[in-house]
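[scheduler] slot 2 assigned
[scheduler] job type: sequence-to-structure, two independent chains
[scheduler] chain ordering preserved from manifest
[runner] begin chain α
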Amino acid sequence: MSKIAVFSAVAVFAFSALPASAQTVDNTAAQLAALKAKEAASQAEISVLRQKIKSLEASRRADQKAFEASAAAAQASSPAGSAMAALPSAPVVANPLSWGGFYFGAGYGREKKSLDQGTAYQTLTPGGPGLATNEPIPLQNTNHLNRGHVLAGYLWQYERFLLGAEGDFSFGDRVPTSIPFGPEPGSCGVGSTGNFVCGTPTSFGSVETMGHLRAVAGVAITPNLMAFVSGGAAFGRSDNVGSHVGFFMANSPSMPVLVTGNSLAPNKSLVGTSIGGGIQVKASQNLVARLEYLKDTYDGVVTSGAAVQANLGGDLVTMTSPSEKVKVTNETIRASLIYRFDPDMSPSAAAALGWQSFTTDPALYANTWAGFYVGGGITQNNYRVSQDSGMTLTIDDSTTPGVDVSRREGFARTMDRTGDHLLLGYRAQLHRFWLGVEGDFEFNSLSSLMSSKSPGQFGGPGGGNMTCYLQFTNTTHCLGLSMQGNLSVETKNHLRLMAGFVITPQLSGFFSIGKSYGVVAGSLGTSAGGIVSVPPSAPLVGAATVTRTFAPENLIGNTIGGGFEFKATEDLSIRGEYLRDTYSWKHRPIGGAGFGGTIGTVTTNSFAAAASEHQIVNEAYRVSLVYRFLNPQSNRFCSFCW
């Protein structure tokens, strides 16, 4: 038996001889040792897992670096590679729906000024056979002007809702106003047998809006689109608002009579009400484009009223203009470019983001302006029919050297109409430039030269304003030459080539050139009339009108234009633009009308000849909503497909 066996037997014998308590202690120690062994094994497994995690993290970082290297290589090969490679990391926008903060801006607008002074009346009570007349004449006048403005304000924002205050100041064109004298506006005719009358009531003057102070409430519809309404006070000033009554009446052998009067309202500063609404689109995070409509009303203008009357040869003529509270409205469609100070971003971060939007934003090159599109909106048409020459007028008093009055001019009449349009087009984009073709259809764009009465009939706005020449002692010269007729003009549609530049991902500017198609119909001609009185000679009076009626004729002209388009969403944009259509209308000869003669020492010659060619110009201001529905240059080929 070996020594090991002997010692083992002795140990077993000794252990069995121990008491039970000793055996329990040793058993517990053995269990504790086993637990420590397991803990050691667990720590070893944890260490192995940690090594695996570190290995996986290192592998992920390597893959990330490889991906970034691949993306950088792809970026370097793109059209904007060098610029984008130099682009610093973009600042984080705290709130993409942010519209609040202080702001200031400037813009341009189209204003329509309307004054309604009630109704004037002109009456004729003949001294012999014949019917008495009592003709109502509306005292209304409308003017269109282009004016600029500056503005500033503040918006408070809560979630998507905004509330603020804003003030603005308007400047620019003003309506030229003067107080008339004489038988304005030049309608002449035989009121009754042997009785010649020139003149009819007319209104004049203007009210200019100088600025606004208003509350603004809006809602952020998308990160790039906000809608708002506004209301508050409008501040204006009246300028020579009133109406004119006056006429010249001759009935030989009686002495002629010239009477004139004016109903006037004092010039004063006005405070009215203003309501409006519009939309704003972000051209960048801090640069905002606005399109809005405003309607200002004033009721502080009150005219004095006027009346004139004359009885000649038993015929009694009366003209009255009422004392009236004038209804004044000023409607404006205007566009503004606004810079706002974003309270959610530091000025430096906003400047960096704005610079990126103008220079290196990848969306500038992403073909987001390409594709097929449709749209529609409103058009404010302003037609002008003119001829370069045709009016000749001379007055020569033989007692003075030379010709005393000499005028050689052309003729023009204007008219306006607000209508609608639909458009369809396609744009192809190359880098930041795009080229396209577009066609449109105009609706409700018909406008007419209306001459309700012509010389030879009593009353009515038949001719242009008469001019009374007062430089002759003891004589009266009131002469009128004008374009005449009931001509209608309508632009029907356009076909244009368009070219644009992507200024920011949300803003594009463009110009256009192409053909315009229109229709002209109705009557056109000229009229001449007036009175010359040189006592004691009998007065020289007369009126004549020559017109020709034309069947509807299609016109093909040229159009040029330009504007801006703003993205409200990826596929929905808002466009504001100006179009100028020009037509050359060649037609059959019309002829002319004249008035003149010699009385005493004064010789008068006036003649209005209608040309065989007239120029028709339509200056149109359009606002459109444009929807892109198909973009072959994008991965997102179809905008309404899922």
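[runner] end chain α
[runner] begin chain β
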Amino acid sequence: MHQALYRKWRPATFDEVSGQEHITDILKYETENGLFCHAYLFCGSRGTGKTTCAKILARAVNCEHPVNGSPCGECEACRTIASGATTDILEMDAASNNKVDDIRNILDEVVYTPTSMKYRVYIIDEVHMLSSSAFNALLKTLEEPPAHVIFILATTELQKLPATIISRCQRFDFRRIATSVLTERLHLIAREEGIALDDAAALMLARLAQGGMRDAISLFELCAAGGRAVTPEIVSETVGSCGREAMSRVVRAVSAKDTAKLFEIIAEIDASAKDIAVFWQELIAYYRDMFVIRTVKSTVALKYLDLTDAEAQMLHADAAAFTREALSYHSRLLDEAYASMQRPGASRRTVAELTLIKLCDERLGTSPEALVARIAALEAKLASGVSIAPSAQTQAPEEKPQEVEAPAAVAPTVTPKAAEPTERTLRPLRVWAEVIESFRATNPGVAALLTTERAYTDESGRIIVSYSKDITKIMMTPPEKLEAFCSALSLALDRAVEPRQVVFEKVEAGGTPNDAKILADELDELAGL
């Protein structure tokens, strides 16, 4: 019968265990000096070596001639344990044997001395699955077992264990195995098994394993089925991964606001055998890496990212197109979309397409994060010296009334000074509610006053704020308040608004500015001014 590679290559000594030296060094010392504990607790994520170390420890405590703290593998005890012929080493899966009667069976046996070994060892895997009554039955014996009994408990969910159980064991926390350690182990197995393994493919497998050695080896065996060479293309095809190049394509399309390209990418994924949910997880991970690049210095960021030089260069280029605020907002949208994809009956393609459209245009979002992202983008443009002019759509409504609504009286051209119009033309500021909502994030008290006031735009593009309460003008006088107010206006109007372009005029409650004609036609409303 074929034996899975992760079982075939299970470490037989503590020295062969990868990435857990902080634990194996202590266990070797205890074995060499005979300083065994009566109970051990191994906790950590899956595939990090908990059960493997428990098996090695069970052999080491019974080995007749330990070598550097590890079982020799040659003595009678080691061979007997390896063949499974001994009854003194008991492995129990608490997931399927979690009743109090299962624990009582163990307690009835511990009083008897080992038949052929020095110690009777009980390995209880997934111990967090035991019932409360089972834990209570185990409690006293776990604290003071007979001298010839050793308990080894293993769990992936430490928080589910009673504190009384944890306090009676010597606890070891197994860490996720580093990507470099995983790739080194995969290359070793590939050489011994005669399988060609590409360096980039090994790195992909190590990333997908997320720190678990068993998962890495299992994925490697799956990709190498039939003895084929393992390449990045084979890994992507086997596990349904799209790769970082595909993520970069998506990110560049979002940066360029190329919605047609995004629809094309989603269509390609949907037509292939790849799962959109898997693609979405990779996109979330890519945004995380970009956020790290934008938040931490480049020399330090690479410590937290498992990247090749080419991947690091590509990631730097992609991250430079976004502000940190935009990356934070996008990451939240991606997380919410992934949660939506998991709901029964959800159309993953539709969720993906709608979310990517939102990533291209922050104006489609109404959350505080969306507003912050828009403000940050505007500030970045202003800081770089880019002139932010109104779009053609927003200019037309302002210019059109000037052509149609000419001043009532214009002085003859021969006069040295042109006569000023006797009546101003003002248009209501249609985005006034959005301005107040954006301003509320930093100045909630002043924003509450502005809700009872009105705002207009004149022919020159100035913002006329008509106020009926003197407190409104007083509260808006400080420069920092006015700057924040202008930022909210700039964001809502999609053009730069400076403090000198904002005018406050006193009116009666519910009234309008003097000498002003108010235009509020449908075209103005559609233009959003």
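[runner] end chain β
[qc] chain β: The domain at 244-382 is CATH 1.20.272.10 (Zinc Finger, Delta Prime; domain 3).
[scheduler] slot 2 released
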